[in-house]
């Protein structure tokens, strides 16, 4: 028996963070690296939000707060759900944590026992399966390929449900595919879920505001109100307001689950950062210009990247509905050899060769549970994206 726990051996470090670290190491050695692996907006947090944080410090809001969020932030979150999602929640049904990540972690740790199953459509955000494993649950991964728009079908959902299914995790728009569920696609899933009362729905809505071409975002509790009493609607300020470093996420759910999550949080982080909570309140209750402006910028970048990648031999890149990622297929490159002599045996070999031979850092598809693909985060400048796409094209043209 070693010093480290069995629990720890079940999980691996985040592969997206690993790739970003590798790119930073190469850059520090003087290599010209374009990093497209990190999942955060490249903009600064809007000024009025930063000002609210400075004012909070000066007003002395620098102490412990209520465990799962200040009353005024919870009210701002209730207003947000009512205004943007048509969802009516009371403050007692709201929880605030240190990033959306802690909300997910709390929910899974508070509810899973050995043998409990969690359905996770792939490609998935890298942390879902590992969080389930840490909580002693069993991830049930359902592959949702490019041919079905990376979306879970009602048939595949129904086939994956067992008496031990405790949660279905949905993430629309998705990291890494950018795929979004419109009302009809969401309703097809909620119709199935109505028939299985043992299944709770964890809806990760963190990319809600990053939707393009007039796509209308919907969340399960809004589409099917009869599921509201077994849904955790999770969201946060990281992606919507360029606030990844502030670490504020939140969730809405029945009071019994919210209380259980608060119990757990009271014995781990106590409360999210007091100053960040005031900043998050300003983000949710204040002017929303940043949301619209950043959406337009991301849509332009998406178009630039999709067009550029589809001009690369061996790559097929569908057009995503949202988020700031594309998830192209490299089926046409598998088995070929790069100009520098690397065999592209799988998507991990592709991503490594791309980094070593062209200096472009992307994340390989196996990390997200669906191969052969790779993920590009286009949350960087147009100039960097243009250069990256040109390098990827030269790389693909050199493969034979
Ligand atoms: C799908 C998804 N959910 C949740 C998160 C967590 O974000 P945060 O903890 O910054 O709120 C991320 C961040 O990358 C994400 O991509």
From TrEMBL:
Essential cofactor(s): pyridoxal 5'-phosphate
Stretches of the chain forming a coiled coil according to its record: none
Gene3D superfamilies, sorted: Aspartate Aminotransferase, domain 1, Type I PLP-dependent aspartate aminotransferase-like (Major domain)
Keywords: Aminotransferase, Pyridoxal phosphate, Transferase
Catalytic activity: L-aspartate + 2-oxoglutarate = oxaloacetate + L-glutamate
Enzymatic class: transferase
Known EC number: 2.6.1.-
Annotated Aminotransferase class I/classII large domain residues: 32-392
GO molecular function: L-aspartate:2-oxoglutarate aminotransferase activity; pyridoxal phosphate binding
UniProt record, GO biological process: amino acid metabolic process
Quaternary structure, from the entry: Homodimer.
Family classification: Belongs to the class-I pyridoxal-phosphate-dependent aminotransferase family.
Protein name: Aminotransferase
């Amino acid at each position: 028996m070693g010093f480290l726990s069995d629990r720890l051996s079940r999980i691996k470090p985040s592969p997206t963070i690993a790739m970003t670290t590798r790119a930073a190491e190469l850059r520090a050695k003087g290599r010209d690296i374009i990093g497209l692996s990190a999942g955060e907006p490249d903009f600064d947090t809007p000024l009025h939000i930063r000002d609210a944080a400075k004012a909070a410090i000066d007003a002395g809001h620098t102490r412990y707060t209520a465990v799962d969020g200040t009353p005024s932030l919870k009210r701002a979150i209730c207003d947000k759900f009512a205004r943007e999602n048509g969802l009516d929640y009371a403050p007692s049904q709201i929880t605030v944590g240190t990033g959306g990540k802690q909300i997910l972690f709390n929910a899974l740790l508070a509810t899973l026992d050995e043998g409990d199953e969690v359905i996770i459509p792939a490609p998935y955000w890298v942390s879902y399966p590992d969080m389930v494993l840490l909580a002693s649950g069993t991830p049930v991964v359902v592959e949702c390929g490019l041919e079905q728009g990376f979306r879970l079908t009602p048939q595949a959902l129904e086939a994956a449900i067992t008496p031990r299914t405790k949660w279905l995790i949905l993430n629309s728009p998705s990291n890494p595919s950018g795929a979004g569920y419109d009302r009809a696609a969401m309703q097809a899933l909620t119709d199935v879920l109505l028939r299985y009362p043992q299944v709770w729905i964890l809806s990760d809505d963190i990319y809600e505001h990053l939707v393009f071409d007039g796509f209308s975002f919907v969340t399960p509790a809004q589409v099917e109100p009869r599921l509201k009493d077994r849904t955790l609607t999770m969201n946060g300020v990281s992606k919507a307001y360029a606030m990844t470093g502030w670490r504020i996420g939140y969730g809405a759910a029945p009071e019994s689950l919210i209380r259980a999550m608060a119990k757990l949080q009271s014995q781990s982080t106590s409360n999210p950062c007091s100053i960040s909570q005031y900043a998050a309140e300003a983000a949710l209750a204040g002017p929303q210009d940043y949301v619209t402006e950043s959406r337009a910028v991301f849509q332009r970048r998406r178009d630039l990247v999709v067009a550029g990648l589809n001009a690369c031999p061996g790559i097929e890149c569908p057009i995503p509905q949202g988020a700031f990622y594309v998830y192209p297929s490299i089926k046409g490159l598998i088995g070929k050899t790069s100009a520098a002599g690397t065999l592209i045996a799988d998507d991990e070999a592709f991503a490594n060769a791309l980094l070593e031979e062209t200096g472009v850092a992307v994340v390989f598809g196996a990390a997200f549970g669906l191969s052969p693909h790779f993920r590009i985060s286009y949350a960087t400048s147009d100039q960097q994206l243009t250069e990256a796409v040109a390098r990827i094209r030269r790389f693909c043209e050199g493969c034979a």
